[in-house]
Each structure stands twice: as structure tokens, then as C-alpha cells.
Amino acid sequence: MSKNITIKDILNTPEFCDFKVLAGEKALNKNVSSITIMDAPDPFKWSKGGEIVLSSGYIFKVHFDEFHHIIMKLHRAGIAALFIKVKRFFNELPEEILSLADEIGFPIIEVPLQMAFTEVINPALSQIINLQAEVLKISEKIHSTFTDLVINNEDTQSIINALSDLLNEDILYYDTYFQKAYYSCSMEMVTEEFRDFNLSDILNKYHYYTIGINKEVYGYIIYLKHKGEDIEKDNYNALSHANTALILDVQKKISSLQIEDKHKNEFVQDIIMNNIKFKEEVNKRAEIFGWDLSRPIRVMVIDIDNFKVEYLKLESKNSNEELEFIREKIIKNITQIIKSYFRDAIYATFSDSLVFLLQPKDKDMKRFDSQIKKSSDEIRNSTREKFEFTVTLGVGDFKDDIMEIHKSYEEALMSIKIGRVLYKNDAAIFYGELGVFRLLYSVYENEEVMEFCKSSIGKIIDHDEKYNSELLKTLIIILENDWNLKSAADSMFIHYNTMKYRYKKISMLLDEDLNQYEVRLKLSLALKIYQMTR
Fold first, then answer.
1. Which fold has domain 273-434?
2. Per-residue burial over 208-222, b = 16 or more CB atoms within 10 Å of its CB, e = otherwise
3. Pairwise pLDDT comparison (237 vs 193), residue with the higher score
4. Distance CA 219, CA 250 (A)
5. What strand order describes the sheet that includes 428-430?
6. At residue 419, does pLDDT exceed 50?
7. Each residue of 354-393: b (16+ CB within 10 Å) or e?
């Protein structure tokens, strides 16, 4: 039922069957709030909008020259329509007045001459009052329905079912926090478009109501059968109450989840810190959360770059809350990406970092490693684009025994430390691919090591600075191509003869035979140390 009464609704009742629409027929769907008598040429001063103005016509007869202006002012004041006894003072209304009313969409209705004003006012007010009573009744029903749902601690599906009944609509609620869809109707009635769920596409096609508070969006109420149509204003009361109930429901779930996450975090922390000395304890605690830790596990650590630096820059409490809000968003985004690749991933959050325990589903380790690399790239790109922060990821080696997991965690942390030395930020580093860097990391800042680096490639560095050449870059590319000059030339997009010239130039500057194994080993180590110190 509509919660508004229109001019057309009033004219369609038996009491108004002899009324005649003279102008503004296309505007008969205007809402009516009240009815009043016009006894002065300026009633619009006291208008609140939506009124039917009832007139004997006398005011227009006396102020005939202002007829046009009065109609315009009535329209601008939000008056719904003019009900006038035309035959009392006119034979008919001027054609230019009727044309104006048609043009601006202002209904003018002829009242039968024999009808008393009370015969017009009473049935009209009766309809309006009855509707207002019905609106109040529906409002009370909405209020009591959602109050009962909240008091009785009903679940999300119950809230959606109740809202659907109140709206008399098939709806979908998509919980963006927990990434779950709730339908008010059976799945057999849901179209293929909603089964193959793509939220952004659906929001572009269907009308929806956002569930949330302040900046936080928790989900969307989507009308399953409304494409390109506005949600009726009448529905907003129910939707507003549903918003409150759903926010309370999701916050209750979040609170419960936070308690569970706290216990999970403590358990994961005990595992990776090697605080648990007996395997039986690990397995029993894992059973509580439904975790199977019997398969090989690899630890991934994801750390938000420079987050603590940004925290120290804060000047106010509001800035602190905003930064904390961003941190939670980043962590949620990272978790969702990892879960999309590894649904059963075990994880814990630690301030500005996350620790994931990743397990392959089968023995296809190449596919598993490929998924880790793909997820790492997606996490780095997504964090950079959505939040203007970067993350560095470290991945430890596989451990077959849960009691060895702390070693994979230490390897992941070491990978991040070495990665930040080599790449500063925004990198994904696998411990197994670090090679000699693992050894060099422990000594690269030693004075003797620095002297070794300088004596080995210092002349090339000096030459590049003095002559703006690229000999050091050339040497690095040659090493990356396993000392194959043809491949190195192709990598640098230079002619092979140019590469041979540079190779000879490097040899002359260093006064070394670059074909000797010992020389190549020395230069390889020196370049790796240089990469770690630059």
C-alpha cells in the first residue's frame, strides 16, 4: 500500500464523481497533505506544501487581473491543486489560465455548484486521516518487528525475511564484511545473474540500499526485480530500521570473531615463536579451530611498509583513528585476497603485519608456488592502488613437521629484512631464492667486506661517475646472463660488438682476466654486496 494519497485518489472516490478536471491532468499524481479554503489572494504565505486549495471563485473574480500571477504563486508555494466553483462567478475560466495550468502542471478542478464546502472538505480529510492512521499502524509494525528481532537476537536471514515481508519485495542482502549473500526467496527463484555473483555489476543494474554507519559500509540491500527504478520513499522507514538491526547483527558477529581471532592469534603466535614444546598440545589446540596441521606448511609474512613511521607523524586523535581505519582496511583486503587463493589459510594479525600458514591441497608444488606468487603480486598491486601504501612479503620454506614451523617463520622474516636492503619496499621475497644473499646479509656491513667490495669494483663505479657510462650496469647484466655476452647484449638492447667493447673495457679497468673462475666469483660476490649497500 502506498503511504501517500494523491489528487487522483481523491477524485476516484464516489463523493467526487461529479468533479471535472479542467487543467493540469498530467499532474494528478501529486501527493496531498491537507485541504484548506482560500479566502484571500495570498494564501501561499501560510502554505506548507501539498494542500488542496478550495475556492468559491470570488477571490479570482475580484482580482481578475492578478489571476495569472496567483496561479503561478500557488504553484510555486507547493499547493497541490485548486478546487474551484467555476459557475459561481464565471461561466468558464479563461483559456490562457487553463493553458498556463497545463504548462506548469498545476491541476485545476471544477467543484459542482450545489456542493457545500463541508461536503468537499470532510471526505477529503477523512481519506487523508485514514491514510495517516494506516501509516502510523505500519510504522508501529515496522518498529515492533525489528525491535523483536534485535531483542530475540535473531540472525541475519531472519532480518532479511522480515524486511522482505514488510516491503513485499524479493530482496538480496550482501554482507560485504563477511562476503556472504542472503536471499529472501528460495534459490530456485533466483536468476542466473544473481547466482554467478558479481557485486559491482549488480549494483550498476539494480536498485539498492546501503547498510552502514558513518564511513563504514557493511553491505547492500538489493531489490531483485527492480532494474532502473527508484526505491519508493515509503520503503525507507523499514529500510532504516533494517539498517539498525543489520549493523547490530554484524557488529555482534565482528565482536565474536574478534574474540575468536584473539585466541587464534595467540595459538599461531605460540606456534611460530616455538612456545609449544609438545606436538600433542599443538594438535589438540588445532582441533578446537578445526585446523589440520598434518600437511606441509609454508609461512608467509606480509608487512605494511613504513606504517610505524606514518603513525609517529600523527598530530591528533582523529588522525590516529583514520590511520587505524586504513590499517584495518588493508588487513581485511589482504586477507580476502589470500582467502581467494587459499580458502583454508590459517592466519594471525600482529599490529601492522600478517602471518599466514599456507598448505598445498595436493602434491603439485609448482602450482602451489605459482599461486603464492600470483597472490603476492595481487596483494602488492591492490594495496598500492587502493590505499597508497606498499607491503613487503617474505615467504619461508616448506616444513613437513608442525614443530618446525617457527623456522619457516624466521626465514620469512629474514626474507623481508634482506628484501628491504635490496629493494627498499614493495617486494615479494622467497627465502629459497635468496641464495648467497642469505650469507652476505650477516656480514655486508662489516668494514673488511666493504673494503673487499670497493677494491673489486670501485674503479668501475668511479669511471661511471666520471664519464656517465654504464659499465657497472653492463657487468651486472653479464652476470645475470651467466657471462654470455650475446644474451647480455640482447638484454640491454645493444649491438654485440658494443657489448664486447664494454667487456674489454671492464677487464682493462680492473686489470683482471674476466675469463678466470676466481675473478668471476670475486666480482659476483662484490656486486651482490654492492646491491645490498646501495
1. Alpha-Beta Plaits (3.30.70)
2. bbebbeeeeebbbbb
3. 237
4. 10
5. 346-350, 353-358, 298-304, 391-395, 428-430
6. yes
7. bbbbbbbeeeeeeebbebbeebbeebbebbeeeeebbbbb
Half-sphere exposure of 169 (CA within 13 A, CB side): 21
| Phi, psi (deg, nearest 5) at residue 91 | -75, -45
Residues making up the chain, counted from first to last: 534
Judge whether residue 347 has pLDDT over 90: yes
pLDDT of 219 higher than 70 = yes
Residue with cell 484548506: 36
The pLDDT of 335-351, averaged and rounded, is 91
pLDDT in the model for residue 319: 65
The predicted-structure confidence for 299-314, as pLDDT tens digits, reads as follows 999 999 988 776 666 5
437 to 414, 417, 428, 458, 482: CA distances (angstroms): 11, 11, 15, 20, 17
DSSP-based helix, strand, coil % in the chain, nearest 5: 60, 15, 25
Other beta carbons less than 10 A from residue 41's beta carbon:
15
Domain ranges of the chain: 7-130, 153-252, 273-434, 440-533
pLDDT at residue number 315:
59
d(CA 181, CA 365): 33
What gap in Å lies between CA 323 and CA 321, rounded to an integer?
A: 5
What is the pTM for the complete model shown? 0.55
* Long-range CB contact pairs, 243-249, < 8 A, 24+: 243/209, 243/211, 243/212, 244/146, 244/150, 245/146, 245/149, 245/150, 245/159, 246/156, 246/159, 246/173, 246/211, 246/218, 246/219, 247/211, 247/212, 247/213, 247/218, 248/150, 249/155, 249/156, 249/159
Can you tell me whether residue 260 is helix, strand or coil?
A: helix
Cβ(265)–Cβ(349) below 8 Å: yes
- Fold match, 7-130 / 440-533: no
Question: 341, 371 in Cβ contact below 8 A?
Answer: yes
Identify the CATH homologous superfamily for domain 7-130.
HprK N-terminal domain-like (3.40.1390.20)
Query: Which has the closest alpha carbon to 55: 98, 105, 122, 111?
Result: 111
For residue range 479-508, list pLDDT tens digits in order: 989 999 999 999 999 999 999 999 999 999
Q: Reply yes or no on whether the pLDDT at 410 is more than 50.
A: yes
| Alpha-carbon distances of 277 from 88, 271, 272, 403, 458, rounded to whole Å | 102, 9, 12, 8, 50
Residue 228 has pLDDT above 70, yes or no: no
* pLDDT of res. 206: 84
Q: Are 385 and 397 a contacting pair, CB within 8 Å?
A: no
Query: What CATH code is assigned to 440-533?
Result: 1.10.10.2840
Query: In terms of Cα–Cα distance, which of 453, 458, 414 is closest to 434?
Result: 414
Which residues share a beta bridge with 394?
301, 429
Judge whether residue 186 has pLDDT over 80: no
